[in-house]
Amino acid sequence: MGQSLTIPADVAADGVDEILAVHLAARARDGRRFTCTGRIEVHITDTGDRWLVELTAATVHTRAAAPGEPRDTQTAATAEGLDLDLWGRTRLNLDPHQRHWPDQLAAGAPAG
Q: What is the pLDDT of residues 62-73, one digit of tens each?
């Protein structure tokens, strides 16, 4: 008890990919709506992984992103930080303008 565990970057990056590529798409297929729309780049700073998530009210498209690609906003953090945030285990310390994007993406995570 009281020990801090670290998630290896490659494992955490896989967890981020699962939220973005699997759970968000399932949410859209189930007919649930997104409250924020736009092009969000999700960048893992310690692995270099990048995704471009394109949200409309009822659809989501996720794919690998190239640096400098047009986007409305970017969320960038370590693999472990993003993984824990998107799965609802902790919250990244983001300014309020950026906070709603990870919250919207995390909404695709399964409950519990």
A: 999 988 899 988
